[in-house]
Every structure is written in C-alpha cells, then in structure tokens.
Amino acid sequence: MDRALRRKIANQAFVVICTGAALVALAALALIMFSLLTKGVGGVDLMLFTADTPAPDSPGGLRNAIIGSILMCGVAMMIAVVIGVLAGTWLAEIGGNTPYGHVVRFLNDVLLSAPSILIGLFVYWWVVVPMGGFSGWAGAIALGILATPIVTRTTEDILNLQPNALREAGMALGASQWVTVRSIIWKAAGAGMLTGGLLGFARISGETAPLLFTALNNQFLSFDMSKPFASLPGAIYPFAMSPYETWNTLAWAGALLITLAVLGVNILGRWLARDKDHK
Amino acid sequence: MSLQSARHPDPVDPIFRGLAFAAATTLLLTLGGLIVALMIGGWPAISKFGFGFLTSSTWNPVTEVYGAAGPIVGTLITAVLSLAIALPIAVCVSVFLTQYCPKQIAQPVSTAIELLAGIPSIVYGMWGLFVFAPWFARTVQLPILTSLDPESFWGKLLAGVPNGANIFTASIVLAIMILPYMSAVFRELFRSIPPQVREAAFGLGCTSYEVVGSVLIPYVKKGMIGVVMLGFGRALGETMAVTFIIGNSHRFPDSLFASGSTLASTIANEFNEASGVHLASLIALGLVLFLITFTVLAIARALLSSQRY
User: Which residue among A259, B1, B21, B233 has the highest number of C-beta atoms inside a 10 angstrom radius?
Assistant: First the structure.
C-alpha cells in the first residue's frame, strides 16, 4: 500500500472514530437526561410543593426540603459573596502580586477543586462538634465554603479585565482606593461578578456530600437553623437508597427539580455574561 | 464621589484594605483548618494502627480494627479506570467539535456539554443505581458469569455478584460524570490555539489526523495534562455518584465486577453511625483522601499556571 493511501485511510478512520465517540458521549448524556425526565416528571404534582416528606408508602411532597435548601443556599451565598468578593478584590486590586498573594491564589484554586466531602468533615469538626449537634447553620457554612472559592476566582478574573484607565481616572479625581473600587471598578464589573455568584449558587445547590454530616436532615418543615435541617439533596439520598417506591418517585422528582434549578441558574449566568460581552 | 486630598486620606481606606486582606486570609485559614481538623480527628486511629492503617484491608467495626487499604485501592482503581474511559472520548469529542462539526451544530452542542458539566453528581449516581446497574447486570454481567471458566484469568478478574453494583460500573458512571467537564475544557484549549498554527500544518500537506495528532495536541500538551489531573482529582474525591453504585464493601478489591468502596463513599456511608475509633478512622480516611487529592491538584495547578480553569 502506498504512503498517500495509508495516510488517507488513517485520516478517514480518525474522523469516523472522533465522530463516533462524540455521538456515544452525547447519547450517554442524553440517556441520563431522558431517564431523569421520564422518571422525574411522574412525581411532579402540586403536593410536591405543598406537603412535607412522608413516611414510607404514604403520599407526600418535598416542601420542607425545598424550603430548607433555599434557606441554606441563601445563607451560604451571603457568606460566599462577602468573603469571595473581598478576597477576589484583594487579589486583583491590592495584594495579588505579592508572594502572599500567590499563595492565596494557589490555595483558592486547590479549595475550588477539593472534594466536597472533606469540606463536610471540616465543618463537622469546627462547627458541629463545638455547637453540640447537627444544624442548618453548619450546612450553610459548609455550602458557603464550597461557593467562596468560585466567587473569589470570578471576581478576581473580572476585575483584572477592567482597564487600568478606570483606576487612573479614579485616582486623578483624588478618590481613595476604597471609593475607586466601590464606585468605579465594582460598578463596571457588576454583571460579571453576578455571574460568578450565580455559578457558585449552581454549584452548591446540588451538593449532597457536605450536608450529610453537617445539616443532616429533617422530616418536618422547620425554620430553626440551629436544629438539623432539611435539604433537597439530603432528602433525595435516603429516598433513592430506600426500597420504597413512593420514596424513589419523590427522589427522582427532587433530582429533576435540582437539575432544572441548576440549569436555569447556569443559563441565567451565561446570559448575563453574554450581554456584557456584546456591549 | 468624595474628593480626598493626600493630607486627609479616606479613613475607610485602611478598613477596606484590612477587610479584603482578612477575607483573603480566610481562604488560607480554611485550608489550614481543614488539615488540622483531619489530623486531630484522625489521630486516635493513626496512633493506634500506625502505618498498618494504610496497608491493612481489615475494616471491622465489631472488633474495632480498621485498615484503609481496601478504600484506598478502590479509590485509585475507580479514578484511573474512569479517566482511562473518559480521556480518549473527551479528546475525540473536543476534536470533533472544533475540527469537523459544522459551526451551526458545534455551538449549541458545546453549550449543552458545558451545561451538563454542572449537573449535580447525585443525579449521575441515581441514574447509575436505577438504570445503569440493573441493565449492566442483566446484559453484561450475567452472560459473562455463565460463559467464563471461574478459574481462568478473565473469570477471576470479572467474578462477582451479578447485581451491577461494582467497581466497574462505578467507574463508568464516574467517567460519564467527568466527561462533559473534560470535553468542555479540552475544547477551550483547542480554541486557544492560533489559527495560523493549524493553517501552517495544513499548508505543509498534513491530513487533518496529522494536524490534530502531530501539531495541535502537542501544542496544548501541558494544558491537557493539567486538565487530566483536574479530572483525576474530581474522580478521586467524588462521593455521591460512587456511593450509590459501588456496593460499599470493605474487602480488598480483587475483581473488577466485585463490590468495593472508595475513601469518600466509606466516609459518606458510615460517618453518622460511627463513634470512637471508628469515627477517627473515617476522619483518617479523609486525611488520606486530602493528601492524595492535594498532590494531584497541586500538580494540575502547576501545569495550568498560565491558563486557569
């Protein structure tokens, strides 16, 4: 066989393999989404939002879990936005180029990909044990620690994209660094920072592992975050593992809810970021 | 905006800088606190079992003897196997999307893949438990079990209870889970290559296979290894997708189709029922997991220092 032909065949084979692999990958992912939709939609009805998690083999919904998830994620995002925006601003505007800045940036990147179950252990040791029990606060802190590195990183990246002329303009007007950052830089970077927050929110809303031994779970509707607290992932996990069909159905419905919420928030974040690019 | 003169500096400024510095330091303290918590919490187990904790595969809550070898090996096998499955497919997907696919299709498909990378891992775990494991047991495991001689090499490698909950299926679910993430970042890497590089290679008469294999992939090699390490880090520490399907037994894994456990799945499963040495052993498992993932992530970040994903 001559060389040209061999190269041609190798090339054709490569194209076929790549296309085939792409189709297999997309098919696998489509299959998962299909299972989620078909099994999840059956459990979605009005009761899902109005009733609390039931005993086995009796009707019920996920109201307490949905409310619990929203509350915990809300508190977590407050923690993450305050610490993340300040830390990201420090990295971009103040100390990012010092040796200490490099260390912080590296550790933030490590924290960003650290296994979430380890964050759960961390919060168990420093919050659950001293406070004497599982609580919604502990769950919120664990989720907050997971979201903080994401907010830090996007804040730093977005602030670095702002032209130096903005900073010089602030300085030329005699504004202090605080006023320059608050009134000029943060304002210009607002949409991008919001996207970072949304990405962080999307990441933590489906996290299960860190909640297992921080917030635990609660069968009833509760607004007292100093007690064990319900969450959607915390309800899905035992329900999916159980042999009861009604619980399994609820687990699928809950998984569908979380997935739709995560997708929705991600799409919103992208849309905000895109809007910014076109301006 | 208030005007400030150099002689009367804004009193808020030092407070702002101090708070920002404190926030940055919080990140450092979190990681430090994590290490301290894992070391103190795991100390009773480490001091009791010593180095044998890492090499023993006994995990017995009744006799209070714990060894981490089973979960450690289970973690490494599932992570390596899932990477071996996901890596070639992810490369192919990203090559297909950047080189062969028409633009009108490539854009929506890429967006879809990026969105799928954000799906919570518990969804992948549930799909593995309810859909994939039963299917795998019926159509793959049973026929293999009945047709292979149990004493042969393959028979031993593929022996196990045919319920679909085993190390192999856990690895496949993990692979599907890290696939969108790796494909999306590989695609970004390929797109970051200046078009002139690709055009120059075509200009020399390369086929598209040669362009990708000999020019484009070597061009982003460092970044790719970094991404592979990041994917590996994810697979090592993933909890929910694995806990659902690996079968959760602590024996030393001797067959691909046998149930096993990983460091993360053992912690997730037993933590709430544990106390005393059992609890300390679970925290020590966390310390082992931290050391492994920290090493992997540090290498990944060092390789990706110029690009950040």
Answer: B233
The predicted-structure confidence for A127-186, as pLDDT tens digits, reads as follows 999 998 899 999 999 999 999 999 999 999 999 999 999 999 998 998 889 999 999 999
Q: Are A108 and B127 in contact (CB < 8 Å)?
A: no
Side-chain half-sphere CA neighbours of A184 within 13 A? 22
User: Comparing C-alpha atoms, which of A147, A118, A34, A135 is closest to residue B264?
Assistant: A118
CA distance B93 to B180: 9
CA B188 and chain centroid, separation:
20
The predicted pLDDT at position B254 comes to 81
Residue owning tokens 């006023």? A179
C-alpha B71/C-alpha B69 separation (Å) is 6
What residues of chain B lie within 8 A of the CB of A213, using their CB? Answer: 271-272
Chain A residue numbers with beta carbons less than 8 Å from the beta carbon of B34 are 114, 118-119, 121-122
Q: Which residue of B has its CA nearest to A214?
A: B272
**Smallest CA–CA separation between B120 and chain A, in Å?**
5
ipTM attached to this prediction: 0.91
Contact assessment for residue A72 and residue A143, using Cβ atoms and an 8 Å cutoff? yes
Q: By C-alpha distance, which of A103, A123, A111 is closest to A84?
A: A111
Give tens-digit pLDDT for B182-221: 999 999 999 989 999 999 999 999 999 999 999 999 999 8
Chain A positions touching B101 (Cβ under 8 A) are 22
Is the minimum CB–CB distance between B276 and chain A shorter than 8 Å? no
Q: Which residue of B has its CA nearest to A133?
A: B272
- Yes or no: say if A175 and B12 are a contact pair by the CB < 8 Å rule: no
Nearest to A81 by CA among A170, A183, A175, A199: A199
Cross-strand partners of B66: B59
Nearest CA in chain B to A95: B21
- Which CATH number applies to B34-303? 1.10.3720.10
Whole-angstrom distance, CA of residue A32 vs CA of residue B55: 38
Rounded to the nearest angstrom, the minimum Cα separation between A61 and chain B is 19
Domain spans of chain B, in order of start? 34-303
